[in-house]
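Q: I'm writing up a methods section and want to include an example of the input and output format. Could you take the sequence below and give the corresponding predicted structure tokens, formatted cleanly so I can copy it straight into the document?
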Amino acid sequence: MISPAQPASLQQLAQFGTMDESGTIKKAWENSCYNKMEFAIKEDATMFEAVQQFSAYKVGALVVTNEAGDLTGLISERDYVKKIALLGRTSKETKIKDVYTTKANLITATTDDSVDSCMSMMMTKGVRHLPILEGNKVVGIVSIKDLVKTVFQDKEETIKALSDFALGKSGTSM
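A: Here is the clean output for your methods example:
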């Protein structure tokens, strides 16, 4: 057992995987491909433009905004399949605002939310993409894949740190 006199980092390592959460959503966002691209599209754009972005960036969803840049919803590849392809509509003629998931039906996260709480929310609601808000401003989006990668990376780092500690490589003595 690690005593209260041990460095905070060792206490945190000892608690990981119990009651501790794996960090904020901001960490997952910083490591996400969505952090390196234009993740939003205007609601007046066509589905064809959205599909082009999906393909160019190898992503499955985009945040939808109005002219002022405010979040109005989310558009996904599934929206394309269910609301365009299966209904015989054409992507070049269909506006995003006619087929996207509106803000009223959307779940969002804040930059302070934990990865664990976001994963739980996404699993409960059955969604794969989560817009991130700071106040009322959209600052990012993450996928469930991004969150799984973050949890996996955290666990790998914890295992390495504990292994180093057990082998006396941590530079901290008991």
